[in-house]
Design a protein that fits this description.
The protein has 489 residues and is mainly beta. It has helices at 2-16, 21-42, 134-137, 173-178, 190-193, 475-480, and strands spanning 55-56, 62-64, 72-84, 87-94, 102-106, 110-117, 126-128, 149-155, 161-166, 183-188, 205-213, 215-216, 219-220, 236-239, 245-249, 253-260, 266-271, 277-282, 285-293, 296-298, 303-309, 315-323, 339-348, 376-383, 386-387, 399-401, 407-413, 418-420, 426-430, 445-446, 450-456, 468-472, 483-488. The structure holds CU-O-CU linkage and copper (II) ion (2 copies).
């Protein structure tokens, strides 16, 4: 079945090269009609950006590793979640009906967690963004069978950052994440806590996992496992498992930790009226300084922390445009895109104490890697559901990296967000240009839509038995084999 998809796609692409003008014209007319039709159908479920938000935002339970004795217990289980009040959908979650708790960890300390798999299928837990050895990283080699418990001690040796955990078995990642398996790992350090940034969890420091789902009569459509799509893009935004939510916030700066937890969709976030906001962090840590922007694109797997100034408004709406993943491909016209939907309405509650009323000018010090120190160069071509012409083979190690050696990776990728395990990188260039100020931070996922050059090194070991992965973070592509593995010694 999967092979079938690949063939179909290949055929379309070859055809693409010599379609006549008339055919193109017909395609444009038909696609315009389709988009209009789909848009009309869309409004049934998707909240138009002006609809009043009625549901309070679901905030995942916080588990602070410091105020926890013994290992943190996480049960991986099936659940029933109400996306729309009164209508239950079969889902999965970590200690929850859908999604999982936010686990807060501290640089320099260790966090002990035990995950028990009470699903009736194997799963595993990958710490996306963690700088840990391959064995703890939780790649596809690491299976937790039904009824089994995986106990892991995470030595936290990295700066304050927004990370996440999710399943990573080859072939079932897309379906398991879609059913609700995802949660935040927040890392704190003394430096970030001394800055006076908004950091009261759920009050002025709010994690937001943004996903797209389809609903019929209020019920989430389950993952189409017997007819796996090439990439799943759906029409309704779901934020922490809530649709069109609001949150009561103090009249001061509010930090939103945006995680694109969608299977395949990218978003462009902005504030109503194109109001400015600040980007303060990329995946691996704080930027050197807040960067004022008015819109922000986030691909699957990426995280960005932003700060919204609520001292000047009574309410403010965060919106997202749903971007197409492929701009030129045939399927782009068949799915709704460039739609805006409400992510979250922030409403000032004057009873809440204003906590962060100033934003520090300097947030972090980032010592850049120098290109002249590069010892190894690698190129990654993402195309045709493979990387460098190869599909993921659990028995093949695609390359070997050396501990502590500076590498330059060139990523040639059209519509594929690229992610690697075990470290964070800095961008050297994006499509021939130096990275924009808001992209000059530590990252682990990148959506070049062209060519990106990145600099990185690995400080932890990944053996043949427990290698690291690099892959496309469109989960369907990852499942189909757009992934490779490497060791670090
Ligand atoms: Cu978020 Cu290898 O994954
Ligand atoms: Cu990862
Ligand atoms: Cu891809």
């Amino acid at each position: 079945m999967m092979t079938c998809f690949r063939h179909r796609k290949g055929a379309l692409q070859r055809q693409n090269g010599f379609v006549s003008r008339r055919v193109i014209l017909v395609i444009i007319i038909v696609s315009t009609l389709l988009v209009a039709l789909i848009t009309a159908g869309l409004s049934m479920n998707a909240a138009p950006p002006t609809a009043v938000a009625k549901t309070p935002l679901n905030i995942p339970t916080l588990i602070d590793s410091r105020s926890h004795d013994g290992p943190i217990d996480i049960e991986i289980r099936e659940g029933e979640h109400e996306f729309y009040p009164g209508v239950k959908t079969k889902t999965s979650g970590y200690n929850a009906e859908y999604l999982g708790p936010t686990i807060k960890m501290y640089n320099g300390e260790s966090t002990d967690i035990q995950f028990t798999n009470n699903l009736d299928e194997p799963t595993n837990i990958h710490g996306h963004g963690l700088h840990v050895v391959g064995k703890i990283d939780g790649g596809p080699q690491n299976k937790i069978l039904p009824g089994e418990t995986w106990r892991v001690t995470i030595p936290v040796r990295q700066q304050a950052s927004t990370n996440w955990y999710h399943p990573h078995l080859k072939g079932s990642t897309a379906q398991q994440v879609h059913s609700g398996l995802a949660g935040f790992y927040l890392i704190e350090d003394e430096h970030s806590q001394s800055l006076g940034l908004p950091n009261t969890y759920g009050i002025d420091d709010i994690p937001l996992v943004v996903q797209d789902r389809t609903f019929v009569d209020g019920k989430m459509t389950p993952y189409p496992t017997n007819n796996m799509p090439e990439d799943l893009r759906e029409d309704t935004l779901v934020v922490n498992g809530t649709i069109n939510p609001y949150a009561m916030v103090p009249q001061s700066f509010v930090r939103l930790r945006l995680l694109n937890g969608s299977n395949a969709r990218s978003y462009e976030f902005y504030l109503e009226g194109e109001q400015p906001f600040y980007k303060i962090a990329t995946e691996g840590g704080l930027l050197e300084a807040p960067v004022e922007i008015t819109s922000l694109k986030i691909a699957p797997g990426e995280r960005n922390d932003i700060v919204v100034d609520m001292s000047i408004a009574k309410s403010q709406r965060v919106l997202a445009k749903l971007l197409p993943q492929s701009y030129n491909g045939f399927n782009a016209v068949l799915i709704p895109f460039s739609q805006s939907q409400s992510v979250l309405e922030l409403r000032v509650d004057n009873a809440l104490e204003a906590l962060a009323s100033e934003l520090p000018k300097q947030l972090n010090t980032i010592t850049p890697y120098l290109e002249k120190d590069v010892e190894v160069e690698r190129v990654f071509e993402l195309d045709d559901m493979s990387i460098n012409g190869q599909q993921m083979d659990m028995k093949i190690i695609n390359h070997e990296s050396k501990l502590g050696q500076l590498e330059k990776w060139t990523i040639n990728s059209g519509r594929h967000p690229f992610h690697m395990h075990g470290t964070s990188f800095l961008i050297l260039s994006m499509n021939g240009n130096p990275p924009a100020p808001e992209d000059q931070g530590w990252k682990d996922t990148i959506y070049p839509n062209g060519t990106a050059e990145i600099l990185l090194k690995f400080d932890y070991e990944a053996t043949e038995q427990w290698p690291y992965m690099y892959h496309c973070h469109i989960l369907e592509h990852e499942d189909m084999g757009m992934m490779g593995q490497f060791t670090v010694k």
